[in-house]
């Protein structure tokens, strides 16, 4: 098999595409012949040694993948060789094969494209957990999505609309805002040139958004939190801008608002049955055409460095997907 090896975590430029021994699945694992794998922001952080999890060296990055089962370890009963699957395994995706804990593997229903499946579990799992579980989003409420043209942002627009919410999508350019509109956003804000507080006041009649979905962090967080509605829920998804904001907690008191942490990976480990229900609902919505991953580009697996370079340019709309064969 071939795999991208990280033995010096100073950035994507240090990764090497190597011929390595094909692993055999351990008890409880399956080996997947990888058809597609997508990039997530933590994949970049982990090869830069900036992520909270620091795997022992060397390792194969790539947290999210899809393909077919081609070997099964002892004790695995719910999967068989030839099954089409997707997985969020944390490691091993940027390769031709990977051994994954079978509990983390999602069988794909008929008609689920491998490229879509590779861009599905993390972004849509995170967003369903955030909006439906943590925020308890109700039909008719208003959701503000920051970084709305990115992978989790585009998922948030679709899931919020599927739940019957009104969506205000905020992005950094007119082109990205146009993409958000095409995905179903009711209103857009280009925070690259508009004052986001003024725009939110106008678009909500002074009420503010009921739910804020924030994968960006940085200097947008405080002005947006100042604009949140009474009993609003501010969902902390991530910090793509780099800086972790400090919010004045008196604002939470004055607005009766909640700051809600969203850590989907830990939720999936601690509450596997609830996570499985969430993914099943998402698969149904995919089959019904309510949601579909937005794929920015598809590149052959050996071109991973070019994909990381595009991710670093902050021009990606949706997800980048690497393919084998």
TrEMBL record:
| Any one Gene Ontology molecular-function term assigned to this protein's record | oxidoreductase activity
UniProt domain Enoyl reductase (ER): residue ranges: 11-322
In terms of Pfam families, this protein maps to: ADH_N, ADH_zinc_N
Per the record, the domain of life is Bacteria
User: PANTHER family this protein is in?
Assistant: QUINONE OXIDOREDUCTASE-LIKE PROTEIN 2 (PTHR43677:SF4), SHORT-CHAIN DEHYDROGENASE/REDUCTASE (PTHR43677)
Question: What name has this protein been given in UniProt?
Answer: NADPH:quinone oxidoreductase family protein
